[in-house]
Please model this.
Amino acid sequence: MMERDENTSAAGRIMYGSTIQPNSLERSAVLPPGDPVIQNGMDNAETSIEKSLRKLPMAPLRRTFCLLLAFDVIITVVLWLLFTEVKSKNSDGSEFKVQVLQYDFRTSLFDLLWLSLFRFTILLLAYGLYRSKVPWFVAGTTTCTCIYMICKIVLFTYDLGKDSSLVILDYLELITPIILSWVEVWLMDLKVIPEEKRLVETMLASERRYNRGEFDERAPLLSRFLQPPRTEQSFYSPQPSETGDSDNSDDGRSFHSARASRTHSTTQSITSSTSQGAHYKSVIASAQKIAIDLMESDGWVKESGKDDVEGIVYSKQTKTYGKVFKLVAQVDVDALTYYNDIVECAADMPKWNPTVLEVRRLEEVDDSTEVSYNIAAEGAGGMVSSRDFVCVRHWEQLDGWYITSSMGATHPSMPEQPKYVRGEQGPGVMRLKDVDTNKHQLEWMVNTNLKGWLPQYLIDQALSGVMMSYLKHLRAHAATLVPSSDTPPQ
Model:
């Protein structure tokens, strides 16, 4: 029950700017896991959530839409007053009487006020009073507005040859209703409705997890991994050993620990509690398997680069994670040397890689797992602003590869920062294997949601460019690395 209340409160902070008290929402009946009527119960839960949200204050985006409707009426009235005032030859108000009492479709613009009031009334009733979640009302008013304005523009008698200010006002008064009606469509159809549907889906996903008996109170709240497509996969694995040793496991894995020499940020790390540490381990174990399976799957398409030796970036469209990217290249340094550098000197990466501004350890889970905070530099020539990420990071040797894997997470010591857009990281992995004495094969898969309202081509350009830039700086950095004297873990 605590998890459900936390999700409700977090949903309220995102949608309404304040916490929704759990007892202010109607809760659906809790069904036991595996109950044959669970689907009917979830339908009831969705209905209950919808009804509960209607009783809450209007969400900021929907309030913005209603304010836009009021602005539509106000600006139309102001423009019409300016038009009649400029057109009047004297101050007796005769033009106002002509516009209103002697209305003519070809010469008067008074009908535009009624058109604006028509949009205001219909849309305010539909989206303000009844909180409708369908776009047909705004689509209908925009269609009517466009048809009416096309007829008006074609048949209207313009004040050509007269005062130039009148001509400008003619054009401005006629084009404003079309622009405002389309802005209303954009705001409602692409902003308000999707955001509110996402909220309902998130709360419903939490309800499903609760009904299935998944009571993990430390799961990331309102992340995309709680949504229905992600909740079907289990993120739970057998409880790890409490010894904390780096012994070989039964499946042939070995863990290379360099904790003593790691040069992370001087920020004091937080020792993980047993239960939270187990959660982070289970999440990263599942994420690593997903990432490796995805990396080894078929269907990758070339994005940029020459070949697998010089470096090439591939991309693949997935149903669950969207578009993901993979870099394949060979680097002139042995795999163990670079692997040690990744593990031991992660905080030094900004010194040689300008695409990264900061790497900081937030919490040490065990000798081969940690929670880290990273800040990425601007991309696509500054068109994509800096993003920051919180993720669980894990490293080990598996099947002849040196592997580092990562997965987005939340951490109490690093909430979202006002200076950066908080990106979301799905299952990602980098693996290294020697192909020669002083050369290794690098394979790196990036699975990142940059968030924000960015065109897809900018995202593709940014991620592909970052990976090729990383390879360029890595090669320069590899030339400065001293070959590791450590013996690879067996």
User: Anything to note?
Assistant: Confidence is low (pLDDT under 50) at residues 1-11, 13-39, 214-252, 254-272. The longest strand covers residues 387-398.
